[in-house]
Design goal:
Elements (H helix, E strand, L loop, with lengths): L2 H12 L1 H8 L9 H7 L5 H15 L5 H22 L11 E5 L5 H14 L8 E4 L1 H4 L6 H13 L3 E4 L13 H15 L5 E6 L1 H10 L3 H4 L2 E5 L4 H14 L3 E2 L1 H18 L5 H23 L7 H5 E2 L10
The protein binds adenosine-5'-triphosphate (ATP) and magnesium ion.
Length: 322
Amino acid sequence: MNGRGMAAGKQAAERPSRQINVVIRSQEPQNSVEAAAAALPAKELPQHALYQEIRKELDQLVGLDNIKDLVFEIYAFLQIAHMRADAGLLSDAHVYHMIFKGNPGTGKTTVARIVAKMMQRLGVLSKGHLIEAERADLVGEYIGHTAQKTRDLVKKAMGGILFVDEAYSLARGGEKDFGKEAIDTLVKAMEDQKNQFILILAGYSGEMDFFMHTNPGLPSRFPIQMEFPDYTVDQLIQICELMAKDRDYILLPQSILKLKQHLMAAKQESLHAFSNARYVRNVIERSIRHQAVRLLNQYASGQPGKLELMTLRPEDLKVSSD
Ligand SMILES: Nc1ncnc2c1ncn2[C@@H]1O[C@H](COP(=O)(O)OP(=O)(O)OP(=O)(O)O)[C@@H](O)[C@H]1O
Ligand SMILES: [Mg+2]
């Protein structure tokens, strides 16, 4: 989505009451989304319920403010496009193929799932499912095999999103590599099956920039680019607490302190390879297993109380410095 359309969409997202005024011209301007939604004809209501639903899902994600803004920009744009079509105005077909740039574990797949659902609910996609693929799923072993494999995958993704992780690896081998055939087949499918699926190419920022330069036709085909920054240590702690809460566990303040110190070191040590929220998820899941072993040993007879069953102590967090 480029400049003007998105800018218009963004303004609308920031002033939801104006979107609604477009529809109910006979009504007085409303001050809040809720009040306006209540005044809308029945057929408009699900769209506003969707607005709340998507916001709730995105709000559960720590940070990612730029992504949240862009998702709402797309939402607002689509809503206005519907209203414009209803009003007999031009609403040109848009291209929604996207590039997601970011290190591992920065939320790319999670956001792609939310976008897929939103696109389905707004009528852009018929099914709204997500097919995740990587180089090996697209590239074959002999001439013609790659095109077939890629076409099969596109077929599976029809009505949904085809999400290609580490997409830059398709350009890795240069002209003679079958990866190029996969790119060409994807580009052809984007033309032939226009608006029937959305292609998201994901990968490390630098590599994706390089990849886009390998084929001059690519940048214009992916008008939406989202940057997924690395999480700060504080954001990682928040994510960790959320993950623990979702699983009915709590971390003692001493556990959080220990984790914080560990994350600071781990982030510095691995830099590019640090897997952000996924790293934290692994730490939590490992700690849960360690807590289970500790409790079983501790309570050879009898049973731990509810609070004990929930609590992750510093000794459960077996981080590498232990
Ligand atoms: N901002 C966030 N808030 C809460 N949880 C998050 C956030 N970002 C990611 N997660 C969680 O971290 C895990 C990894 O996220 P996800 O799979 O979306 O990352 P990714 O960028 O696709 O990683 P990869 O590049 O390795 O495939 C998931 O369990 C996800 O729910
Ligand atoms: Mg992923």
